[in-house]
Design a protein that fits this description.
disordered N terminus, 388 residues, 10 strands, 43% helix, 4-stranded mixed β-sheet, 6-stranded mixed β-sheet, alpha/beta
Length: 388
């Protein structure tokens, strides 16, 4: 197992955060911060980016398998570290974290080499960014997906405005605004996953995939098909409520979405409606508004356009030039853990369209530039798009 890129063979803590295993024409990458639920550090993102760029033109690599060590695939980006850097006055360093992460998302979405992600466990936020953009996403009975950013005062980033906006109906708006948790069957049903394989069969699938010596997605898909199964949705699944989701989450504004949900709740005893309303009421009002705008714009944009726009948005959040909710959310949820964030503005009606507009403008700083994504010699359409 090659866990270091150093010529002297020294194994250090940084390179061990992503374990690299070479098996014939396959490369198996294991996210290796199990105690942090494999939350993506700057070092992990940097190493993954270097590896995928190197694999792109390496004829000895035909397939990349990505998985996580422990009970999580990846619980997201290391947000606490980003907040600490920003609070210390280095917002530009925090912006570098997101810039590199978004560049990795773009590389994965346009990669010629098929990527198979084993989403066996928690996959949230940044964890979705390093997997959903790849061609194959294998879920299990242990998979738990969520984009919980609005509860933190952020918004679904990592190119989520691209893939959420391409889910059936208005299911993406529902997932993005509420932070709803989906299981493996739900991920498969809505297209976030391409296959369902029981966790006990993953080692056998991995062994079969390491024998592949072609890059043909049809061949790889056929191999995964041999181990996959169709699983029924649970009775309580939100996916059974698509009619109500489309009716409510298709509304033009967040206020209208909430109003529609409350009207449905008034004539129903469905606890799902009450939980959906409560999750939105607890979220940052500003986050809800910019998230809805972001997903709606994402419907009409390519993956690179989505990432460039999301980078502008996150830079405004890090600079605290429009709103400070992200730092308050991290204080309440991650640091002090009192789970009682004081959002400012405190309600939706106080947030004007002009305030929302500011998040989508270029940052007014002479040292700031838009995200510069690498030029690719082929289509910028995400490889995942055909599956979503």
């Amino acid at each position: 197992m090659a866990s270091s890129q150093h010529s002297n063979g020294a194994v250090d803590q940084i390179t061990c955060q992503v374990l690299v295993e070479e098996k014939s024409f396959a490369r198996i990458l294991t996210l290796n911060r199990p105690r942090q639920l494999n939350a993506l550090s700057f070092e992990m993102i940097s190493q993954l980016l270097d590896l995928f760029i190197a694999y792109e033109d390496d004829p000895s690599v035909k397939l990349v398998i990505l998985k996580g060590k422990g009970r999580a695939f990846c619980a997201g980006g290391d947000v606490a570290a980003v907040v600490r850097v920003s609070i210390e006055g280095h917002w530009n360093l925090a912006a570098d974290f997101f810039g590199k992460e978004f560049t990795l998302n773009y590389i994965l979405s346009t990669c010629k080499k098929p990527q198979v992600s084993f989403l066996n466990g928690i996959v949230m936020g940044g964890g979705a960014g390093v997997s959903i953009h790849g061609r194959f996403r294998v879920v299990t009975e242990n998979s738990v997906f969520s984009m919980p950013e609005t509860a933190l005062g952020l918004f679904p980033d990592i190119g989520a405005s691209y893939f959420l906006s391409r889910l059936p109906g208005f299911f993406g708006e529902y997932c993005g605004l509420t932070g709803a948790r989906l299981d493996g069957a739900e991920m498969l049903a809505c297209g976030l996953a391409t296959h369902f394989v029981s966790s006990e069969r993953l080692p056998l699938l991995e062994k079969a995939l390491t024998k592949v010596d072609v890059m043909d997605p049809a061949v790889i898909s056929a191999i995964i098909d041999q181990f996959s199964e169709q699983v029924p949705l649970k009775e309580k699944s939100a996916y059974h409520r698509m009619e109500i989701i489309d009716k409510c989450f298709s509304k033009r504004t967040v206020e209208e979405i909430l109003s529609a949900l409350e009207q449905e709740a008034a004539k129903s005893t469905d606890v799902w409606l009450a939980a959906t309303i409560e999750s939105m009421r607890k979220a940052s009002p500003t986050s809800l508004k910019i998230s809805l705008r972001s997903i709606r714009e994402g419907r009409l944009q390519s993956i690179d356009q989505c990432l460039i726009r999301e980078y502008r948005m996150v830079c405004h959040i890090l600079r605290r030039d429009v709103n400070k909710d992200f730092f308050e959310g991290c204080r309440a949820i991650l640091l002090d853990k009192d789970k009682n964030p004081k959002w400012e503005p405190a309600n939706l009606e106080m947030i004007s369209e002009e305030m929302v507009d500011k998040f989508f403008l270029k940052v007014d700083d002479e040292d700031w530039t838009d995200l510069k994504l690498p030029l690719k010699p082929y289509s910028v359409t995400s490889t995942a798009a055909s599956k979503l």
